[in-house]
Amino acid sequence: MSVHIVAFGNERGGYSEDDLQSSLIWTYLGRSALVSETDNSLLLNSANYLRNPSFIEYQARVFGNVRLVVHDCPLWDIFDSDWYTSRNLIGEADIIVIKYSVNDKSSFQEIKDIYALLIKKALNHCSIPVIIAAVGARQNEVPCTCPLCVSDRRSCVTASEGIQLAKELGATYLELHSLNDFYIGKYFGGVLEYFMIQSLNQKSSEKMKKRKKTQKCHEIKPPQLEQPAAFQWELLEEHITKKLKDPGIVELVLEKVKCILKIPGKVNNSRNCRSYVSKRPLQLCNSSLRLFFNTTVLADVMFKIQGAVVPAHRAVLVARCEVMAAMFNGNYIESNSFLVPVFGISKDTFLSFLEYLYTDSCCPASILQAMSLLICAEMYQVSRLQHICELYIITQLQSMPSRELASTSLSVVSLLRKAKFHNSDCLSNWLLHFISSNYLIFSQKPEFEDLSVEERNFVEMHRWPSSMYLKQLSEYRNYIHSRKCHCVVM
């Protein structure tokens, strides 16, 4: 059994490699009497070791034989540069810790205005305990009445501001004036260990419930329901090997697919996925160009869309989009026009598209918005944005519980139609398998009749659960009813 803790923020007010062993998490692991062994490793998003650390992983043993895994993310940039990794970290967490320095007001303001909302959205009403730790002694505790000291007076984060943030997140608020034995061991450690025990009790209870449900009747075994196959893995390997002659490239592509789809029996080691992530090249620095997004400063082109005007900069557009490069450099009317009309796209979608060109990142608010952005990306031939939208749609649909999937008004068949029409083969193939894997839900929806004959045949062939299993299950239930077979435990 294990407990997974994810910590965000830097309690030192600035990040450096020398502060690792004096951080809140490391200090707790080093001083806690519960910890029997520790190990940490620094994982990077790029080959640049000193400048771009993503998170630090600590592993330890607590309560004797319980495995403790801690991911400490000192930089909030992980939400901007790798939104999917940060979302997965939050999804796998049993406890979340948010840290900040009480003397770094600007960092706290970013947490409150931006990152707290992203964390709350990723939690999605889950009952994961959150601890907010305000670290340090305030340097300007007593405010000065002199008008010249207004900036100093506002440089500290007050306790009321931290408590208000904790209320918004439903979190536990702690003030740690120093990283000594009292604040770390008894104060912070006591609260953290309380939530750890709660998490272990909940997991033990769920394990017992599963064990009771899997008790078998002694006279006959029920039919075995195999898990739905995402696709035929061997067939995929064969096709990729034929098209890509280089074995090294084939292995890299397969590892990427395994990490995204989490194939059962193929990849169970998260380190492989992390090693792939660490090999990605550095992306566009989104902190500088973001200042020019949707502003008239130095703008040399205006897009007219749905009655509104959106400013932009030709240099950025030409550098980031080949279609726009051809449009502004070729023999087209747009090359000499200051006002360029845009048709067939909503204003919000086009703004999201421009935001990606300027910042190299995007965060769709919904599946429908992601599909609209995918269509826009296909129109302007921005393949990486298409893949990001595809992955977002897949991730959102995968995380939907069956009850929500059955009651949602979202039409998956309509998404399939749009994906096929706009040449999104990866998404359209996945949606077909998704419909097949949730056959009992989609077969009851009116939209199921809109599938083509070819699509219907594919779904019937790959449906889950299969018709053979349902037949065996019916026979088993009839046998149990006729023999009045009761479970041995009962």
TrEMBL record:
GO terms for molecular function: GTP binding; GTPase activity. SMART domains: BTB. The gene is RHOBTB3. It comes from the Eukaryota. The keyword Lyase does not apply. The keyword Nucleotide-binding applies. InterPro entries: BTB/POZ_dom, P-loop_NTPase, SKP1/BTB/POZ_sf, Small_GTPase. Residues 299-360 form the BTB domain. Keywords: Nucleotide-binding. It comes from Eublepharis macularius (Leopard gecko). Pfam families: BTB, Ras. This is Rho-related BTB domain-containing protein 3 isoform X2. Signal peptide: none annotated.
